[in-house]
Each structure stands twice: as structure tokens, then as C-alpha cells.
Write a structure and sequence with these properties.
The protein is of the alpha+beta class. It contains nine helices and seven strands, in the order H-E-H-E-H-E-H-E-E-H-E-E-H-H-H-H. It has two domains: 123 residues, Beta Polymerase, domain 2; 61 residues, no CATH class. Helix 2 packs parallel to helix 7, helix 6 runs antiparallel to helix 7 and helix 6 runs parallel beside helix 8.
Length: 196
């Protein structure tokens, strides 16, 4: 599952180290996760879901502000609204979007199912969303975006093709129904040659 994305790995490394030091549970999602589980593609940003609380803001910003553009008020606002904030890695100018963990049952379940994986051969294991959950996330984003993003759809198909029979199809179908993307999942399974 090794990726050849040195800049992205560099851009997220310090944030991950800081989250670990502060005992803040996190998982990597987005295109980094779909590339790790599926077909790698170039990306200029990274997504992390974190269970951040207001008491984490000061130490988080203090530890990151030398290497990232990060704003404490924006982080606080994201926590209060259960939304997201961005941290710009100054060395690479890559953007890391940190999403606050939501209380929705699917988000909680996906967070519990995270896996420990290495992003590169010589890196330490990191918490990453499972293959099934990145498929479901990408299908939701694809639907919310008007079902026009070739990148999102391609990411879904890439994970399906690479993971194949290793996927928990019962889990995928159960949550796809709950998330109102069952029709998209079945279409993706068919496109990936996994229907039936």
C-alpha cells in the first residue's frame, strides 16, 4: 500500500505527529486514502478527520504554527460547527483539510474501523480510513457534487478494482442504503466488474 507521494506525506507528517502527541484520535481520508487503497493519483491536498475538542486548539496551533499557516479562531469555529479548517504546509504549500469528527452514526462507525497502514515503505504506520469507508465517503461526495466528478468516480472504481473480493460487500451495501447512495454503489460495482 506504499505511495509515491513524498510532498503529501511531508505535508501531513507533522500534523499526524502532533495529533498523536496530544492523544487526539484521527484518520487520513480523501484522495490519500483512496490512493492508498486503490489506484494512486496525484493530489495537491490531504484530508484528515480528527476528534478535536476546544481544549486541543492552543497546543495544536502552538505546535504547528512554525510549519503551517493555521488560524486558532478558524480551528475553534470548525470545532463548534463540526466542520473543517485548513492548514497550509509552508514548505510544500500543500493544503491539509482537517475535518472535525461528526456524531452521525456512519462517521462514528467509519472512525472505529480505521486501519493502521504505512503510506510509504519507510514511514511509520498511520491511521487511515478503511477501503469500504473511503468508497462510501467518495460516493457521498460524488452525489453531493452533482455526480459529475470524474476524479471521485475514478477513485471509487480504483479502490473497488484493487480491493476486489477483499471488500466487505454486506457492510458496503448496508451503509450505502443508509446514506442514499445504494444506486451509485451498484453502478460502481458493475463498472468495476464486481456486480453479482
Amino acid at each position: 500500500m506504499s505511495l509515491n507521494m513524498p510532498d503529501i506525506v511531508v505535508a501531513i507528517a507533522l500534523i499526524i505527529d502532533t495529533l498523536k502527541q496530544l492523544n487526539i484520535p484521527y484518520q487520513i481520508g480523501g484522495s490519500v486514502a483512496s490512493s492508498a487503497h486503490g489506484l494512486p493519483r496525484l493530489t495537491i491536498d490531504a484530508d484528515i478527520v480528527a476528534d478535536l475538542k476546544l481544549e486541543h486548539v492552543q497546543p495544536l496551533v502552538r505546535d504547528l504554527e512554525a510549519d503551517y499557516y493555521i488560524d486558532a479562531d478558524t480551528v475553534k469555529d470548525a470545532i463548534r460547527r463540526k466542520s473543517s479548517f485548513s492548514a497550509i504546509h509552508l514548505e510544500t504549500m500543500l493544503k491539509v483539510d482537517v475535518f472535525i469528527l461528526k456524531s452521525r452514526p456512519f462517521d462514528q462507525e467509519a472512525f472505529r474501523r480505521m486501519r493502521q497502514e504505512k503510506l510509504t515503505e519507510d514511514s511509520s504506520p498511520v491511521s487511515i480510513v478503511s477501503a469500504e469507508d473511503i468508497i462510501l465517503n467518495k460516493l457521498e461526495w460524488y452525489r453531493m457534487g452533482g455526480e459529475v466528478s470524474d476524479r471521485q468516480w475514478g477513485d471509487v472504481l480504483g479502490v473497488l478494482k484493487v480491493q476486489g473480493t477483499n471488500l466487505d460487500l454486506a457492510y458496503l451495501r448496508r451503509w450505502a442504503t443508509a446514506l442514499n447512495v445504494a444506486d451509485l454503489l451498484e453502478r460502481a460495482l458493475e463498472d468495476a466488474g464486481l456486480a453479482g
